[in-house]
Amino acid sequence: SMSVTSAAVQSPPRGVFHVSLYEVAFVDPTYDIPNIVLTTLDFLAPHVQLEGIFRLSGSSSVIDVLKSRFDAEQNVTIDPNTDPHAVAGVLKLFLRVMAEPLLTYELYQAFAQSTLYETEALQKEALKNVIMQ
Fold first, then answer.
1. N or C: lower Cβ tally within 10 Å for the chain?
2. Which positions of the chain have pLDDT values less than 70?
3. What pLDDT score was predicted for residue 44?
4. pTM for this one?
């Protein structure tokens, strides 16, 4: 049995799934990183050694519950007994259905070109320059 509790229930304007990072930032402008990312990563931190944490699927019903909660409330607290694979699943879902990819369409060509350098050091430097744009 999984329960997800929340503190300070507030409704985001449109939820956080299927929207741009720009829109998600309006939900809580005090952070540069969306709350769903911070909350799920905080939960997953003690479980990083768990085999297949991002590869193995969690329960789709638990992922659906978490998705609904993150869409409806700003500050979601995840029950410590929740399956880490489901928490990883809701984070993967968030990243997968973003309105614009994390590596934006605008900078896609620059990201792709950064892989063409011969050495890993030069590739990393080029990638860093793209990210800083």
1. N
2. 1-14, 25-31
3. 97
4. 0.73
